[in-house]
Design goal:
Elements lengths: L1 H17 L13 H12 L11 H14 L17 H9 L6 H16 L1
Helix pairs in contact: 2-5, 3-5, 4-5
């Protein structure tokens, strides 16, 4: 009976631990609609994003976000932080990720575009 109890306990622990895996999400691809959403949001003055977000900058921002941020941690979900917090978050981590100012701006523009959509 004791062996059965240990076996059942082990199965419950395994199932419980496997359900705690981190949820990964795929950052959305850059589309023309995403660029329009960022441009609309920037025009309202609600963000500090680029006034002229274009597909090239947003694609660079997505690529940097996906490849550089994951070097240290899992990709954060965009909705975990307020949109106005993202520039400070990206700036605070830019040194560790060796980001140039234009690269930081591209990541922020991409995040703002995703949040604006």
């Amino acid at each position: 009976m004791r062996k059965l109890s240990i076996f059942v306990g082990a199965i419950i622990c395994f199932v419980d631990l496997s359900s705690c895996s981190t949820t990964s999400f795929a950052p959305p691809p850059v589309t023309a609609e995403l660029a329009r959403a960022e441009t609309r949001q920037s025009a309202t003055g609600r963000t500090r994003g680029s006034e002229h977000a274009d597909l090239t900058i947003l694609r660079e921002g997505r690529t940097l976000f996906v490849h550089r941020c994951i070097e240290c941690h899992t990709l954060p979900a965009f909705w975990h932080y307020r949109i106005e917090d993202w520039p400070d978050i990206v700036n605070s981590m830019s040194h560790r990720a060796n980001l140039k100012p234009a690269e930081r701006d591209a990541i922020i523009a991409y995040i703002h575009a995703v949040r604006a959509e």
